[in-house]
Amino acid sequence: MKTFVTLSIVALLLLVSVISFGDIFSNRSYSNALKGGYKIGEQVTDFNLLNVDGNYVSLADYPAAKGFIIVFTTNHCPYAKAYEARIANLDKKYKLQGYPVIAINANSPDIIAENNFTNMKVRAQQKAFTYPYLFDKNQEVCKAFGASKTPHTYLLCKENKKLVVKYIGAIDDNYKDAKQVQQKFLEEAIQALLHGEEIAIKTTKAIGCSIK
Amino acid sequence: MKFLLTFFGVLLCFSCKQAGGMEVEKNQVLVEKYSFSELESLLVPTGHKPKVVNFWATWCTPCLEELPYFLKLEEKGLADVVLVSLDIPSMLDSHVVPFIEKNKIKSQVVLLDDPYSNLWIPKINKNWSGAIPASLIIANDTNVFVSKPFPEYKPLAELVKNL
User: Fold this and answer.
1) So what's the ipTM on this one?
2) CA–CA distances in Å: residue B84 to residues A2, A56, A176, B149
3) CATH homologous superfamily of A36-210
4) Which stretches make up the Thioredoxin domain (chain A) (predicted)?
């Protein structure tokens, strides 16, 4: 028993020291962020989710695609809304080059009704979405990806028929004003893939509405 | 009679002007916009009490659910509380100020107007994804970062008391 307690304390101390290293303010942290989720370079398992047009969509439905821009987004979130036009532009520009946008709403409509499937259809119609807007009803896909907020993007690339994660994070560095953007993280990553170059920035962070 | 009317007219104008002026001043005091470098100056304890910094927004349901716990913490004198709103800056007058007024919030509220969040999020905590709510509890010799909502008042109070 005594050994168990000692071991537990040592394990806890190790955990605390690991998670606290590197930032200027915090030396202890607690989080309910999804543990796991895909990391850069890991293979993604295909999914099958209901689209706003009534059909089920899988990544296997796109045999000609070189990869995908997966965007976890939602109806109610002001940060997600701020990026809607930019997501549409990404789809317009990169679908033709082999990287279509797949948008996924994983928010539970039980918490915010605005995010239910009917309202998803309304939003997609009003904003004339050119890309699928899928409903991750059981939150299985967002958990597999480790998506914690909206918007949260994952760039996937096909390698030997496998889908591999190449970039995780924000679309660009300024949610507030598309004109003030200094770095288009996601586009720079796609461009690198298209040119067969190494992606310079593979992960970024941004404020967003937590997926509930 | 004409003189009296003019007199009252002038008086009315003065009172209008004064009331208008006070309104503007009140709003300025309520919520100020901060850049991240300005916010950094608030991320230190100001007295003997721990500083509790909560990142929230008016549209964030779990944030609003835990907000009363932070207010209670300050009312009980256990900590100095700073509520950092991450509402879109254009929502300040339409959403944030009315919310503060309606709920009679006396704690310090600032709106963090700094879109380059990829640069400042890791400075708060390197493990923070940027999802809110999130809280930073700062004491002289120890700091704690919590990136999940507090389910009730007690765990928050215990955490602050045991620092």
Assistant:
1) 0.80
2) 44, 41, 17, 15
3) Glutaredoxin (3.40.30.10)
4) 38-191
